[in-house]
Amino acid sequence: MTTAQLHDDRPPRHDPGRTDHRRSAEAPDAALLDAAGALLRALSAPARMAIVLRLRENDCCVHDLVDALGLPQPLVSQHLRVLKSSGVVTGERAGREVRYHLMDEHLAHIVTDALEHADELQSQPVDAEDGGAS
Fold it and tell me: Which superkingdom heads the taxonomic lineage of this protein's source (predicted)?
């Protein structure tokens, strides 16, 4: 997947009533840092990142994700439970199936930004003096 494919052209949604912590000198409070940490832990598994990327494209049922990702159904269901309990995805019953979708496009951007950064790191030459650690 190329960098261009990772990001879409839609502007991010912004709530004018919230502080933009990317530009604020004020540190977020402990509760907000804990919530952000929990979100990042929920997104930390490669299979969950793949689910988020798939749901970014369109809503899916469990069997759609099983087919697309080549993972066993119980494993996909387990990952969906983690994503659902952390507020990343929500499910809507459609007959006998549940269709899952992302709660917010920002969540897909977290994953695509992490992938882009990892790709950049992999393409950098390793500094022999420090073993690549920066």
Answer: Bacteria
**pLDDT score of 20:** 58
Task: Find the helix packing angle between 73-85 and 46-57, rounded to 10°.
Answer: 80
What span, in angstroms and rounded, lies between the C-alpha atoms of 55 and 103?
Answer: 10
- Nearest CA to 106 out of 1, 28, 2, 22 is that of 22
Question: What's the token pair of residue 58?
Answer: 């369109």
Domains and CATH numbers, the chain: 43-119 (1.10.10.10)
C-alpha 120/C-alpha 107 separation (Å) is 20
> What pTM did the predictor assign?
0.74
HSE-CB for 26 with a 13 A CA cutoff: 7
